[in-house]
Amino acid sequence: AQSVTQLGSHVSVSEGALVLLRCNYSSSVPPYLFWYVQYPNQGLQLLLKYTTGATLVKGINGFEAEFKKSETSFHLTKPSAHMSDAAEYFCAVSSGTYKYIFGTGTRLKVLA
Amino acid sequence: DTGVSQDPRHKITKRGQNVTFRCDPISEHNRLYWYRQTLGQGPEFLTYFQNEAQLEKSRLLSDRFSAERPKGSFSTLEIQRTEQGDSAMYLCASSPRQAPSPLHFGNGTRLTVT
Is B99 close to A94, i.e. CB distance below 8 A? Predict the structure, then answer.
């Protein structure tokens, strides 16, 4: 069985500060990992995904994530937060079948 | 790619009424998913279609819930005899293949049962 744990349901950062959203996964097979962003009253939009190969993955809007197998982590970072980054972020894992398991989300607040 | 479309965006209904939601996936995507999302939670899997075949239903999907995907195109999710606990955002997603192909989500239907 697979699972995802997102540490911190709420994270606040100042505008221009580093954004770090944490995701740890559990999987008995090599995982495929995803980060999605959700704005109020909207669906989820893909930020980036890890499949195989390079462990540092770059996504849209300046976000990136690093797959660390030894730590079973896939943390999302952005060097400098912007007000428009305020949203909810979801980490998801799949084993390569049709099943995608989502974490409970982290709400990012950006302070002016 | 016109995106995944869901209708309606919002639905308010009284307890005990039936409701039906529609999802139009991206046209070339043969895989379609329904998820439910409650406040402060991530999306929870409800059901999955490959073309017109419903291949899995979650235990979350009680007998009051039914989903169809006739002809492998659009899909409908019906909830009969709604309960207040059914209040949630219902999300539809589609993909052309299994993972690592990502899911493409619609904007959801927010259901409020009064």
Answer: yes
